Amino acid sequence: MARKKLLRLQEIDVLSNTFRMEQENVEKKLSDFFQNDNPVTLEIGCGHGDYSINLAEKFPDKNFIALDMKATRIWVGAKKALTENISNVAFLIGKAQNLSDVFTKMKPKEIWVPFPDSLPRRRDDFKRLYSTNFIDIYKKITAVDGVIHFKTDDLPLYEFAIKNLQRTDVKIIKNSDNLYDLSETSFEEEIKTAYEKVHLQNGRTIKYIKFQFIIDSD
């Protein structure tokens, strides 16, 4: 193991803004970290936390939780947030399929899934962050009026997401196979991760979906 990677793994568990899913009472630990009841936004597959950090700087009256299964990726964003005194973003190490074990009371008002692994092999469809089983997880943990955002450069993944959402009780609020060709985009939609910048330099178009679950009136 490279020395830099080893040092990051050794340091990650002592960073005050970083938590692991397997920790006991991790949801309470996250709540105690923020020390307020501000709305929560969750970023899934955060990498270096580009989205969460940019959003946290722009919206100090909201709390942000950035999730990734790779501790060495989390370390980059967590260190940056600490260095820049961004206190309304926390980092969570773990797998997205376990989210419903964590978010039982703290219901995210927004979920961002920017540029997940496309997993092109069909046998891996159930692992995709927009498979029906993951959509069910999002429904379980999201606040009643919450919204979910999805960005990708991968056309088959975008089409896969649309197909699965059409099978679910959702309201698609915004949908484009070329986000930056739209006449209006929000600050949140304009945030570009390191991956997105590379995709744009390579001439790829960015696909985007914003939706929320339809709640039964009964």
Short structural summary:
The chain contains 9 helices and 8 strands. The protein has helices at 3-12, 26-34, 50-58, 71-83, 99-102, 132-141, 155-166, 187-190, 194-201, and strands at 18-20, 40-44, 63-68, 89-93, 110-114, 147-152, 170-176, 207-213.
Characterization of the model:
It is a single chain. It contains nine helices and eight strands. With 218 residues, the protein is α/β, with parallel strands linked by helices. It has an eight-stranded mixed beta sheet with strand order 1-4-3-2-5-6-8-7, sandwiched between helices. Helix 1 crosses helix 4 (71-83). The longest helix is centred in the middle third of the chain and has 13 residues, at 71-83. The model has no long low-confidence stretch (mean pLDDT 90).
List the helices and strands and how they pair.
Elements: H1 3-12, E1 18-20, H2 26-34, E2 40-44, H3 50-58, E3 63-68, H4 71-83, E4 89-93, H5 99-102, E5 110-114, H6 132-141, E6 147-152, H7 155-166, E7 170-176, H8 187-190, H9 194-201, E8 207-213
Parallel strand pairs: 1-4, 2-3, 2-5, 3-4, 5-6
Antiparallel strand pairs: 6-8, 7-8
Helix pairs in contact: 1-4
